[in-house]
Design a protein that fits this description.
P-loop containing nucleoside triphosphate hydrolase protein, hydrolase activity, extended, hydrolase, 8 helices, P-loop_NTPase
């Protein structure tokens, strides 16, 4: 939509901006006429709540919103066994490590299938979790440690 303007560009910036607004307007009209299917993928419930609070956008929704939760233990282990071809004992250990969040399951399954040892996968998961706690200042002797206990 926008292009870089320089001496060689025939369209001045205002024409590029006008084209961008025109495309945005067409997108809104097409959305209003139900010509698009929009899929939002989010790991946070807050996105859905923000969308609902914007009544003009929410009123254009034609179909019901479908929310897909994390897998339960049985679904997770079936995914790891049937789709990833991981043995049941190993699938159970991977599920116990990350739970039913499909993206985490896929990551650990891929690492396991790439011949990483379980202890190394576990160490990596724990280091990532610790890094997130550190960034949020929730570790002992950090600003939000006490508040994070609640």
């Amino acid at each position: 939509m926008f292009s870089i303007t320089n001496d060689k560009d025939k369209n001045p910036k205002w024409k590029n901006a006008l084209e961008a607004f025109k495309h945005a307007s067409e997108a809104k009209i097409n959305a209003d006429h139900k010509k698009y299917i929009t899929v939002f993928i989010s790991s946070e419930n807050s996105l859905l709540k923000r969308m609902e609070s914007h009544s003009s956008a929410w009123s254009r929704i034609y179909k019901l919103v479908i929310e897909i939760d994390d897998f339960n233990e049985e679904e997770s282990i079936n995914y790891l066994i049937k789709k990833c071809k991981i043995k049941k004992e190993e699938a159970k250990k991977l599920y116990d490590l990350v739970g039913g969040y499909i993206l985490d399951l896929k990551i650990v399954a891929d690492e396991f299938l790439n011949k990483q040892k379980f202890k190394d996968i576990k160490q990596q998961i724990l280091m990532n979790a610790e890094r997130k706690f550190e960034m949020a200042k929730l570790l002992q002797n950090q600003a939000y440690h006490e508040a994070g206990k609640i």
